[in-house]
UniProtKB/TrEMBL annotation:
Keyword Repeat: no
GO molecular function, one term: ATP binding
Keywords: Aminoacyl-tRNA synthetase, ATP-binding, Cytoplasm, Ligase, Nucleotide-binding, Protein biosynthesis
Domain tRNA synthetases class I (E and Q) anti-codon binding: 455-527
Listed name of the protein: Glutamine--tRNA ligase
UniProt cross-references to Pfam families, sorted A to Z: tRNA-synt_1c, tRNA-synt_1c_C, tRNA-synt_1c_C2
Summary of subunit composition and partner proteins: Monomer.
Binding site for L-glutamine: D65, Y210
């Protein structure tokens, strides 16, 4: 995993090294809140934080930012670790929880009160909002702002002891109600909330706010560069204020970068959770989800995701990345390494009338033309085959180089066949195509040089293995699903198409997670959840058509 060295964050780090700002150290962290599964946007942050550390001989922590117990769960803690590891990153012995610091954060709050920099406020949440003012109007000071240190210490202690109901009081920083930055108008540092925490249980009934807990957690871990997304730019003065106010020995610096947005995708955990909970998808790892677990189950490789994160780079202004780039990355990766196989997704019977009955020929097929060292396999050929329905046309348009009455095509790795006649059912549908083959045209044989315009994939009917193919399309049918009233109205009703297909018999024992290129169809992965021996399930990772404009 590598990051391009020429991003603006690396420039900052180079400059810091020159001025010895952090005594030459580089220490980053990836700080997910365990309130959902990680998505491809998080992958960008993971690659960036771990990549910057690796590139500069530094360290990167995994820190669970678990200060909001009502939405958090160990299920998410576990999935986050699995996903970061799967992406190829290692936090070694540096996995931390903000909740481990609750005791110290409390002590720092007491210190702020002692220094006259924090006070207990009895205004309601609505009143606090009303008093805050607007961008054009200064705020109004809380009537509780000038409580004595002694009274604040007493009230804060009693908040902790559980004497007051949820929401009745908060601890606020005493900064400046006239600040042009709304975040500096006496922000809330602690709230009362009786909520079971997945690690600290019912030990606490007051919880620190993000803007207070985050800078202190960074400083406690001796982080040097605290990389976050752009929406926190306006919070940076508060980040710095907290560290200065407690006179912390370590002063990490916050650096903001543009979050990843992808077209045809939503990327907020709240929305992804809603899709899962309201069963628009089959779980967080549904292969249509932009989650790491969804991409993994779909068949994406960590290499392709890291390559994608490298290519999108790191910038200071928001933009929307074309999902075609992500697809391009997985195609490139799998083109180089995936085994080729033949699978017929929508079967049409072909009978080769001049091929002997009861005979099976084993034909040689290369496993990957990009990598001869991957060797060959054999595939059975016999009198009755399946081809794709769309590869036959009874009344073909011009330039239809596939099978049509009187027309010849090559069957990949096999022979040239010619269509002689069709068989139809009562409704006039073609149910079988009768052909003859030319025994002299065997692929690789002496007379294989005969040219025809089309080459089709196929499977032998008697030998093929029945399987389920799941074809995925974008989960949303508009580029920006967030535009408009409710993103859910933009869900694509045809995002999943389930087909009964036939695959070559060598795939009968395919292991879950194995990826193949099905010739002319796309890249497929054996589903890790639903596939069983005898009941194989293949997820289409991506089709072969690359729409990425380089
Ligand atoms: P969401 O808004 O989806 O809930 P979040 O930012 O609240 O995301 P966190 O768990 O707090 O989710 O994120 C952990 C880290 O990942 C943060 O540093 C955050 O900046 C980063 N991150 C989250 N989403 C993206 C994204 N789309 N692109 C880049 N980084 C992201
Ligand atoms: Mg967050
Ligand atoms: Mg969030």
């Amino acid at each position: 995993a590598s990051m391009p060295s020429s991003n603006f964050i690396q420039n900052i780090i180079d400059e810091d090294a020159r001025t010895n700002k952090h005594q030459g150290r580089v220490h980053t962290r990836f700080p997910p809140e365990p309130n959902g599964y990680l998505h491809i946007g998080h992958a960008k942050s993971i690659c960036l934080n771990f990549g910057i550390a690796a590139q500069n001989g530094g360290l990167c922590n995994l820190r669970f930012d678990d200060t909001n117990p009502s939405k958090e769960d160990v299920e998410y803690v576990d999935s986050i670790q699995e996903d970061v590891r799967w992406l190829g990153f290692d936090w070694q012995d540096r996995m931390f929880y903000a909740s481990d610091y609750f005791g110290r954060l409390y002590e720092y709050a007491v210190l702020l009160i002692r220094k006259g920099k924090a006070y207990v406020c009895d205004l309601s949440a609505q009143e606090i909002r009303d008093y805050r003012g607007t961008l054009t109007q200064p705020g109004q000071e809380s009537p509780y702002r000038n409580r004595s240190v002694a009274e604040n210490l007493d009230l804060f202690e009693r908040m902790r002891q559980g004497e007051f109901p949820d929401g009745s009081r908060v601890l606020r920083a005493k900064i400046d109600m006239a600040s042009p930055n709304l975040n500096m108008r006496d922000p809330v540092l602690y709230r009362i909330l009786r909520s079971h925490h997945h690690r600290t249980g019912n030990q606490w009934c007051i919880y620190p706010m993000y803007d207070y807990a985050h800078p202190l957690s960074d400083a406690i871990e001796k982080v040097t560069h605290s990389i976050c997304t752009l929406e926190f730019e306006d919070h940076r003065p508060l980040y710095d204020w907290v560290l200065a106010a407690v006179e912390h020995e370590y002063r990490p610096q916050q650096i903001e970068f543009a979050r990843l947005n992808l077209n045809y995708t939503v990327m907020s955990k709240r929305k992804l959770r809603e899709l899962v909970e309201q069963k628009y998808v089959n779980g967080w790892d549904d292969p249509r989800m932009p989650t790491i677990s969804g991409l993994r189950r779909r068949g994406y490789t960590p290499e392709a995701i890291r390559d994608f994160c490298d290519r999108i780079g790191v910038a200071k202004s928001n933009s929307i990345v074309d999902i075609a780039l992500l697809e391009h990355c997985i195609r490139e990766d799998l083109n180089a390494r995936a085994m080729r196989a033949m699978a017929v997704l929508r079967p049409l019977k072909v009978v080769i009338d001049n091929y002997p009955e009861g005979v099976t020929e084993e034909l040689a097929a290369e496993n990957n033309p990009e990598k001869p060292e991957m060797g060959n396999r054999t595939i059975p050929f016999s009198r009755e085959l399946f081809i794709e329905q769309e590869d036959f046309c009874e009344n073909p348009p011009k330039k239809f180089f596939r099978l049509a009455p009187g027309q010849e095509v090559r069957l990949k790795h096999a022979y040239i066949i010619k269509c002689e006649r069709v068989v139809k059912d009562g409704a006039g549908n073609v149910v079988a195509v009768h052909c003859t083959y030319d025994p002299d045209t065997k692929s690789g044989g002496a007379a294989s040089g005969k040219k025809v315009k089309g080459t089709l994939h196929w499977v032998s009917a008697a030998h093929a293995v029945k399987a389920e193919a799941r074809l995925y399309d974008n989960l949303f049918n508009v580029e920006n699903p967030d535009e408009g009233e409710d993103y859910k109205t933009n869900l694509n009703p045809n995002s999943l198409d389930v087909l009964q297909c036939f695959v070559e018999p060598g795939l009968a024992a395919a292991e879950p997670g194995t990826r193949y290129q099905f010739l002319r169809q796309g890249y497929f992965c054996v589903d890790t959840v639903d596939s069983r021996p005898g009941q194989l399930v293949f997820n289409r990772i991506v089709s072969l058509r690359d729409s990425w404009a380089k």
